[in-house]
Amino acid sequence: MGARVLVTEIDPINALQAAMEGYEVTTMEEAVLEGNIFVTTTGNRDVITGAHMSNMKEDAIVCNIGHFDIEIEVGWLKANAVQHVNIKTGVDRYLMANGRHVILLAEGRLVNLACATGHPSFVMSNSFSNQVLAQIALWIDNSAYPLGVHVLPKLLDEEVARAHLSQIGVKLTTLTTVQADYLDIPTNGPYKRDDYRY
Hints:
Low-confidence stretches: 188-198
EC number: 3.13.2.1
Organism: Kickxella alabastrina
Number of domains: 2
CATH superfamily of the largest domain: NAD(P)-binding Rossmann-like Domain
Keywords: Hydrolase
Protein name: S-adenosyl-L-homocysteine hydrolase
Enzyme class: hydrolase
């Protein structure tokens, strides 16, 4: 969208990838001095703290698109604000003791759900298709998934992607048998492509 984007990151690989894509990677302590819009995306807690918000520019916008509402220290903001004005549903402006305002969207909850209309149906189709295929995988081969947390096979993600490609005009190249053999792509095992065809 033409914005200058700064990324904060804890993972060295993700940081390298972001830098190689042309993004500036820095710490939150440095980013708060420059940014106008802050979006948390981690699912972790205390990504934006009260100390961070105290150092933001006037009317910096803060929101969360991560999985939980604990990424932004909203409790600190509410407890320490000198003034709170509800601009409209999902948009709150807080005056801090230092004289600066912070605009909080969706009270730190998922901004796309609280301030918009949620994900587009195409995105939801991808997500729910993945869930359905995961349930089918559990039903077909439940012995492969003892009680615990498991990473789903990549094949399921591939099938979801394959099912949606034509909707966005993508034409996928298919490997020849010789190419597949050369790359040593497995053709057998518990997760055969035909198991997950619609």
